[in-house]
């Protein structure tokens, strides 16, 4: 179980094991949109 709450994009696919549970509570702005503490395109298919 991973709960990032930093406010920066810190998690990458290399840090996540397949099937991991990710509870994202950190918020940051990117291109005018609210995002979490990880790269969704990389991590979502894994966790």
TrEMBL record:
Keyword list, A-Z: Hydrolase
Name this polypeptide is given: Bifunctional methylenetetrahydrofolate dehydrogenase/methenyltetrahydrofolate cyclohydrolase
Domain Tetrahydrofolate dehydrogenase/cyclohydrolase NAD(P)-binding, chain residue ranges per copy: 1-46
Recorded GO MF terms: hydrolase activity; methylenetetrahydrofolate dehydrogenase (NADP+) activity
Chain segments annotated as coiled-coil in the UniProt record: none
Organism: Candidatus Roizmanbacteria bacterium CG17_big_fil_post_rev_8_21_14_2_50_39_7
Domain of life: Bacteria
Metal-binding is among the record's keywords: no
